[in-house]
Amino acid sequence: MRHFSCDLCGKDLTPGTDARFVLRMEVIAATDPSQLSDDDLDSDHVEEMAQLLAEMQADDADPLPDRKQFEYDLCPVCSRKFVQDPLGRESVFKLQFSKN
Fold first, then answer.
1. Contact at 8 Å (CB) between 23 and 72?
2. How do residues 41-95 score in pLDDT, each as one tens digit?
3. Would you say residue 78 lies in a domain?
4. Strand partners, 67
5. CA atoms of 51 and 78, how far apart (whole Å)
6. Which residues pair with 26 in a beta bridge?
7. CA distance 90 to 37
8. DSSP output for 31-93
C-alpha cells in the first residue's frame, strides 16, 4: 500500500481517511508571437519540424529546458488555502506573533 502525506502540513493521507488532492503545476517559458511574413507562410513547416525532432533525438540534452512540471499531494485544508491564495501573497503579509 502506498503512503501519502500532505506536502504542505505533513498530515497523513492514508486511503480511507480524508480526501487527497493532487496539485499539478507546469512552468513554461513564455514566447511572444512574432509577426508573420510572406516567407513564413511559404516555408515547409512539416520538414522543419522533422528536422528539429531529429536534432532533439540526436542530442541527449533536455529538449525543453524552459519547462518544469511539479506534482504535490494536499489535504483538504491545504487545498482550500492554496485555491484561495495560489501565489501565497496573503500569507506573506500575515505575521503571527506569540502571546507573551
1. yes
2. 777 778 888 888 887 777 665 555 688 999 999 999 999 999 998 888 876 666 6
3. yes
4. 28
5. 46
6. 69
7. 45
8. -PPPPP-HHHHHS-HHHHHHHHHHHHHH--S-S-TTEEEEEEEE-HHHHHHHHH-TT-HHHHH
What gap in Å lies between CA 24 and CA 99, rounded to an integer? 37
Residue 8 lies in a domain: yes
The confidence score (pLDDT) of residue 100 equals 66
pTM for this prediction: 0.58
What is the domain count for the chain? 1
Which has the higher per-residue pLDDT, 61 or 4?
Answer: 4
**Full domain range(s) for residue 80:** 1-29+65-86
CA-wise closest residue to 10 among 89, 73, 94? 73
**Torsion from C-alpha of 33, 35, 36, 40, nearest 10 degrees:** -70
Given the C-alpha cell 507562410, which residue does it identify?
41
Whether residue 12 is predicted with pLDDT greater than 80 in this model: the reply is: yes
- Let me know if residue 80 belongs to a domain: yes
State phi, psi for 12 to the nearest 5 degrees: -70, 130
92 within domain boundaries: no
